[in-house]
Amino acid sequence: MPTLTKLYTAEEASQHNTSEDCWITIDGKVYDVSSYLDEHPGGDDVILAATGKDATDEFEDAGHSKTARELLETFCIGELEETATPIPELKIISKKQQLNNLPQKFFNLSKQFWFAPITVVGLSVGLGYLYLRKKQAI
Ligand code: HEM
Questions:
Q1: What pLDDT, in 10s, does the model give residues 104-118?
Q2: Which residues, 6 or more positions from 75, have their beta carbon under 8 angstroms from its beta carbon?
Q3: 58 lines ligand 1 (CB under 6 A)
Q4: What is 7-80's CATH topology?
């Protein structure tokens, strides 16, 4: 029969960080070791120093025996919720789409470059016409 595992956020687990209410997290699992603090052969201070954060390294570095690891499991109250890092939304453009866009890009560019000479020519023609009309009128 499947067992239901209680999930905790790292933030929630880290709030139980006193000698009366002491949780530690090791390898993604959450342990309530409040009742074990006074029994711990290594002293309660080392466990209290490892509460409120990930205590995997501290637990492993102490070189605990198999018995210690088995005992640890009896205090397990759940697991840490996996916090998935959101993947930023990517705009996927296929090679074909990129190629199809080339004429459009060229058109956009040429629009920019043609605008200046056409304006100059237009202004010259307009001014020339006005000049000629004025000259004829004289
Ligand atoms: C994560 C923080 C912990 C640290 C830094 C730590 C550190 C230590 C140290 C330094 C010792 C050796 C004491 C000595 O020989 O004088 C020890 C022994 C022991 N610890 Fe821890 N401990 C931690 C958590 C725990 C937990 C959560 C349990 C079980 C619930 C545990 C169970 C034991 C046991 C049974 C021993 C006796 C030696 C053995 O069987 O390995 N410890 N610990």
A1: 776 666 666 777 778
A2: 31, 32, 33, 35, 36
A3: yes
A4: Flavocytochrome B2; Chain A, domain 1 (3.10.120)
